[in-house]
Design goal:
The chain is built from twelve helices and eleven strands. The protein has a nine-stranded mixed β-sheet with strand order 3-2-1-4-5-6-11-9-10, with helices on both faces. A two-stranded antiparallel ribbon has the order 7-8. The structure holds beta-D-ribofuranose and calcium ion.
Length: about 300
């Protein structure tokens, strides 16, 4: 049997984070699960993470982290999160758990768990815990692989140019992009182009308890996507941060330099992607997925859940 890649999963579940966790549990060795504010308060995202981890029989530590960004929370981010994922982050789905988190210092846990481990860090929420971990131990970035969902080389989803995870904490994102870690990025350019339609949600509804609960969350989330973005499917953004670790051939990647705009009044949280000729472009610091086989990725997720 081939050895599974070890990952530490940091996220803000969140409907699509929950799907990403389920796909990761099927194919990867999850050595730790840390939570951050984002799609809801960290109290909600931690409870959601514990509940999903319970259904997936994950025994790794679950540790909560930041409840606010490095600077002040922004009203647009809070409104976006509530609208898309509901007050509890899971669209009111009935996810139950009695388990309590194993700690509340995610950055320290990330440093202790990753140091010398060779595990990949997966990030599916605002990058606050990740940046704080890299600040705690500046040597951590050397040789560290991070696969994250965030940013866009074109348009945003919270503002015209900013994607939610980056916009939620631009200072943290800027730190991570400048850290020297090996970054693989799933931006909106791929993650917003496909997702779960009614047929897939109905298949989940007929599945096991977790699939059924996630189908309810996905139905809520898909409704909000229709209202807000006019799309008839539930994008599974965060799942695209797992795919490079298990089926990289489903995504076409480009390397480039990415800087995070922290100052602009119109552009705060924008990922400035330098796709100019290599002759003039800044040296690349990230590998971004720019095209994806959405049908195959949806099917990969369905197989993991059913
Ligand atoms: C990202 O923001 C959140 O709403 C999702 O969970 C995903 O991580 C998409 O912009
Ligand atoms: Ca997320």
């Amino acid at each position: 049997m081939t050895e599974r890649t070890a990952i530490l999963f940091d996220g803000d579940p969140g409907v699509d984070d929950a799907f990403a966790l389920a796909l990761a549990a099927r194919h990867l060795d999850i050595v730790g699960l840390t939570t951050v504010f984002g799609n809801a308060s960290v109290a909600h995202t931690t409870r959601n993470a514990l509940a999903v981890a319970g259904h997936l029989n994950l025994t790794c530590p679950v540790v909560s982290g930041a409840d606010t960004p490095i600077e002040a929370p922004n009203a647009q981010m809070l409104e976006h999160a509530r609208t898309i994922h509901g007050e509890d982050g899971m669209g009111g789905a009935d996810l139950q758990t009695d388990r309590l988190p194993d700690g509340d210092d995610a950055p320290a846990f990330i440093v202790d768990t990753l140091r010398g481990s060779g595990a990949t860090l997966v990030a599916t929420g605002p990058l606050t815990n990740v940046a704080r971990a890299l600040q705690l131990d500046p040597t951590l970035a050397d040789g560290l692989d991070i696969s994250l969902m965030g940013g866009s080389a074109t348009n945003g989803n919270v503002t015209a140019v900013a994607e939610f995870n980056i916009h939620a904490d631009p200072e943290a994102a800027a730190y991570v992009f400048a850290s020297g870690a090996n970054l693989t990025v799933a931006p909106l350019d791929i993650t917003s182009t496909f997702g779960l339609g009614e047929a897939e949600i109905a298949r989940l509804e007929a599945g096991n308890t977790l699939a059924r609960e996630l189908s309810a969350a996905a139905r809520f989330y898909r409704g909000r996507q229709l209202e807000r973005f006019g799309r008839g499917y539930a994008p599974i953004h965060d799942v695209c941060a797992i795919v490079p670790l298990i089926r990289p051939a489903l995504i076409t990647f480009e390397t480039m330099h990415v800087a995070v705009e922290c100052a602009g009044t119109q552009t705060r949280g924008m990922t400035v992607c330098d796709r100019r000729s290599p002759v003039v472009a800044e040296p690349s610091n990230a590998t971004l997925g720019m095209q994806a086989d959405g049908t195959a990725i949806v099917e990969l997720l369905m197989e993991a859940l059913l």
